[in-house]
């Protein structure tokens, strides 16, 4: 029974939407699952993709501004979709949202992640990454993982990012770290990158929001032991690390040692054995 | 000891929000990984992807009241630190050879 949209009796400007909702455009058989898709979610994801595509470094400032505008639109539509989704899927728990702090930290995280990816100067990207790390540490505190939050700040913001900044300073061609060079100002294949990753993101979010049966996540927990009384805090984490994961923890230490030695060997300049390894020397200036 | 997940203050919709945030972070990092041409920026983008995964692990740890997720984040941080040290050593070495951080300068490296 494939009726044309024109036979819809009512307001004519709603005919298209009616036909879309009832799937009459494609006949009764929904071959590729178009009818079950969550279109507001898809639209929000696509808005985010367009925004990120426009914001990729291209050497044109007004595109970045347009991209920021579309990105704000994408965030707003995603937020409204989330509210709608929670009220439809979990009406009883709708009032118990994650709270304002989650949204604040999530906003800072996403904005600074986009800043990392899109800023043409690597030094500023590294600083955006520090900001993102701090916001994620805030999220971890909200998730009752205080120790991980502290460790994240110490290791990422304190150690890894300082190393990154050092290397950015060391390895800048002109010696001026803040000056953007050619390969930073113009990105390679932003269209393909955005298409691939937002196709992945759309699939993941679609599955997460529409195709997860209720209670599925909780039901799968039966195989996981919950330590309700002694959960949380540093004591439980340490006990878990040194009872269940003793061997992996020791192996992690071995891995750190190996990578330390490897980094020293690789980055060493004019070492006596680098000729044999083919690692080369610094060209004479 | 049985846990009743429904009565927990950390309910399903809250968990799903955290998972969505982790997925979005992963996608942003993937875009940077594929689109940037600076070697340092490529490694920085992988760190963003690491953070997205870490959010997922911590959120599930909170949801199930189980310390395994936090333990895995410890290992994840270890691997990230090892990767960063090795990768930055490599970047310094490669920069010494060609005086550029552009990955396209190394496209003749085949096989």
Question: What would you say this structure looks like, in words?
Answer:
The complex is a heterodimer of chains A (285) and B (111). Mean pLDDT of chain A is 79; it is low at 1-8. Among the domains of chain A are: 18-97 and 188-212, no CATH class; 234-285, no CATH class. Chain A has 285 residues and is an all-alpha fold. Helices cover 65% and strands 0% of the residues of chain A. The radius of gyration of chain A is 26 Å and the shape is globular. Chain B has 111 residues and is mainly alpha-helical. Chain B has one domain (13-102): Helix Hairpins. Chain B has three helices and no strands. In chain B, helix 1 (12-35) runs antiparallel to helix 2 and helix 2 (39-64) packs antiparallel against helix 3 (68-98). Residues 1-7 of chain B have low confidence and may be disordered.
From the structure provided, what is the oligomeric state, counting identical versus distinct chains? heterodimer
* H and E string of chain B: HHH
Q: Given the helix and strand composition of chain B, which structural class is it?
A: mainly alpha
Low-confidence stretches of chain A: 1-8
Secondary-structure element series of chain A:
HHHHHHHHHHHH
Name the biggest interface. Answer: A-B, 108 and 83 residues
Instruction: Give the DSSP E fraction of chain A (strand runs of 2 or more residues).
Output: under 5%
CATH class of chain B: Mainly Alpha
Keywords:
heterodimer, A: 285 residues, mainly alpha, 0% strand, globular, disordered N terminus, B: 111 residues, Helix Hairpins, 73% helix, elongated
Topology readout:
The complex is a heterodimer of chains A (285) and B (111).
Chain A: H1 15-21, H2 39-55, H3 61-89, H4 100-118, H5 122-142, H6 146-170, H7 182-185, H8 190-210, H9 216-219, H10 233-243, H11 246-267, H12 274-277
Helix pairs in contact in A: 2-3, 2-8, 4-5, 5-6
Chain B: H1 12-35, H2 39-64, H3 68-98
Helix pairs in contact in B: 1-2, 2-3
């Amino acid at each position: 029974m494939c009726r044309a949209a024109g036979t819809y009796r009512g307001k004519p400007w709603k005919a298209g939407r009616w036909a879309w909702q009832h799937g009459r455009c494609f006949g009764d058989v929904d071959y590729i699952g178009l009818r079950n898709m969550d279109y507001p979610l898809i639209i929000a994801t696509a808005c985010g993709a367009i925004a990120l595509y426009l914001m990729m470094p291209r050497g044109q400032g007004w595109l970045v501004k347009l991209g920021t505008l579309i990105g704000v639109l994408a965030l707003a539509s995603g937020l409204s979709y989330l509210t709608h989704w929670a009220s439809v899927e979990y009406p009883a728990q709708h009032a118990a949202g994650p709270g304002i702090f989650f949204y604040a930290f999530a906003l800072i995280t996403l904005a600074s992640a986009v800043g990392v990816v899109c800023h043409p100067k690597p030094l500023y990207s590294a600083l955006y990454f520090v900001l993102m790390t701090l916001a994620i540490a805030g999220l971890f505190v909200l998730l009752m993982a205080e120790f991980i939050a502290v460790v994240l700040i110490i290791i990422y913001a304190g150690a890894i990012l300082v190393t990154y900044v050092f290397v950015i300073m060391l390895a800048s061609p002109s010696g001026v770290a803040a000056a953007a060079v050619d390969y930073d100002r113009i990105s390679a294949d932003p269209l393909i990158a955005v298409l691939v990753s937002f196709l992945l993101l759309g699939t993941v979010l679609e599955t997460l929001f529409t195709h997860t049966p209720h209670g599925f996540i909780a039901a799968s927990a039966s195989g996981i032991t919950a330590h309700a009384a002694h959960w949380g805090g540093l004591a439980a984490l340490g006990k878990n690390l040194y009872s269940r994961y003793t061997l992996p923890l020791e192996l992690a230490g071995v891995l750190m040692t190996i990578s330390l030695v490897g980094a020293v060997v690789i980055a060493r300049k004019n070492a006596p054995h680098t000729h044999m390894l083919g690692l080369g020397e610094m060209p004479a200036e | 000891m049985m846990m009743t997940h429904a009565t927990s203050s950390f309910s399903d919709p809250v968990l799903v929000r955290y998972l969505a945030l982790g997925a979005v972070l992963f996608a942003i990092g993937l875009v940077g990984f594929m689109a940037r041409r600076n070697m340092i920026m490529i490694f920085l983008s992988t760190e963003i992807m690491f953070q997205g995964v870490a959010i997922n692990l911590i959120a599930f740890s909170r949801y199930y009241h189980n310390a395994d997720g936090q333990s895995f984040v410890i290992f994840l941080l270890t691997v990230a630190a090892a990767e960063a040290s090795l990768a930055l050593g490599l970047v310094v070495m490669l920069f010494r050879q060609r005086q550029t951080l552009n990955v396209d300068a190394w496209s003749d490296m085949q096989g």
